[in-house]
Design a protein that fits this description.
It contains ten helices and eight strands. The protein is an alpha/beta fold. Helix 2 links the parallel strand 2 and strand 3. Bound molecules: uridine-5'-diphosphate and magnesium ion. Uridine-5'-diphosphate binds next to strand 1 and helix 3. This is Glycosyltransferase family 2 protein. Its EC number is 2.4.-.-. GO terms for molecular function: glycosyltransferase activity.
């Protein structure tokens, strides 16, 4: 069962006490029906509620349930990565804890895998119960990202997907810190296909992705899959300085050869504000890249594990 089961399901969790038990039951029902060996790897991303306790008791009653407990909150994409690091299945499924992605779809994904596909990702044809703001920003983001990058990242897909072991191994071998897993999967290539689904409402609880985390994820995606913002920055800089240079001649001509030289305070302020604004935002673009380069250069581990339950090979905490 442990080494080399057929299917590993990876579930990242952050404060999911209201849903996690139901999620387990629904997963179990679907997986039992498959008639194959499986494991469910729950990754607790530093929850401050009872999530870990609930999963721990599930671990006690079912050896196929495993828990990777982080030392603190490291973020969703890192939690998924840790789950994949610990998964031993021939195939690996990534699914959110909140039942927005229907576990029943796993059966269809497995069927596609048997047909010979290495990646089967869920494509959201509809999103229920999410605010218009989230839907709009998501739609804009996926399309913007697509136009910015040379990697062909499918629109309207989340992390809900099934991967063959070789794809999962490829992903876990990429230890970059700014992770955008969907992008990495596309980058990896292999034979990919999709299954359509309607994204349900969250079963219970609130989104664990506030605007701040959404922006961070989008910036990670942009910066790790595209250097186009840098190119746009330099093109913009070039165009603006050319315009400024031309205007300089106009001004000089007026001053030297005509008597129309104006007072000019308003135009000075306007130009100065415009240029400073643009300069600062372009510096910000540079900063996004430099900051990430710095993070990568430090080469710290992606996450720290406080405890791993039901992984025989892990060393037990000696205090227990
Ligand atoms: N999550 C996580 N760490 C975080 C934030 C979220 O592990 O810092 C998990 C969360 O428990 C859920 C998944 O990531 O299983 C997706 O989060 P959520 O459903 O809140 O995002 P949304 O569906 O609203 O985009
Ligand atoms: Mg959700």
């Amino acid at each position: 069962m442990q080494k080399g089961c057929f299917l590993s399901v990876v579930v990242p969790m952050y404060n999911e006490e209201e849903v996690i038990e139901v999620t387990y039951r629904r997963l179990q029902a679907v997986l039992d029906k498959l008639g194959e060996t499986y494991e469910i790897v729950f990754v607790n991303d530093g929850s401050r509620d009872r999530t870990a306790d609930i999963v721990r008791s599930l671990c006690a009653e079912d050896r196929r349930v495993k828990l990777v407990e982080f030392s603190r909150n490291f973020g969703h994409q890192i939690a998924v990565t840790a789950g994949m690091d610990h998964a031993s299945g021939r195939t690996v499924v990534l699914i959110d804890a909140d039942l927005q992605d229907p576990p029943e779809l796993i059966a269809d994904m497995v069927a596609k895998w048997r047909e010979g596909y290495d990646v089967v990702y869920g494509k959201r044809i509809e999103r229920k119960g999410e605010s218009w703001f989230k839907k709009l920003t998501a739609a804009v983001f996926y399309r913007l990202l697509r136009s910015m990058t040379s990697v062909n990242i499918p629109v309207d897909t989340g992390d809900f997907r099934l991967m063959d072991r070789k794809v999962s191994d490829a992903l876990t071998s990429m230890r970059e810190r700014s992770r955008f897993i969907r992008g990495l999967v596309s980058w990896a290539g292999f034979k990919q296909t999709s299954v359509d689904y309607v994204r349900d409402e969250r079963f219970a609880g609130e989104t664990k992705y506030p605007l701040r985390k959404m922006i961070r994820l989008s910036l990670d995606a942009m910066t790790s899959f595209s250097t186009r913002p840098l190119k746009i920055a330099s093109v913009l800089g070039f165009v603006l300085s050319a315009a400024g240079f031309i205007y300089l001649f106009v001004v000089l001509y007026q001053r030297l050869f005509t008597d129309t030289t104006r007072e000019g305070w308003t135009s000075m302020i306007a130009i100065s504000l415009l240029f400073h604004g643009i300069t600062l935002s372009l510096l910000g673009v540079l900063g996004e890249y430099i900051g990430r380069t710095y993070e990568e250069a430090k080469g710290r581990p992606l996450y720290l594990v406080a405890e791993a339950v039901n992984f025989e090979e892990e060393a037990e905490d000696s205090r227990k």
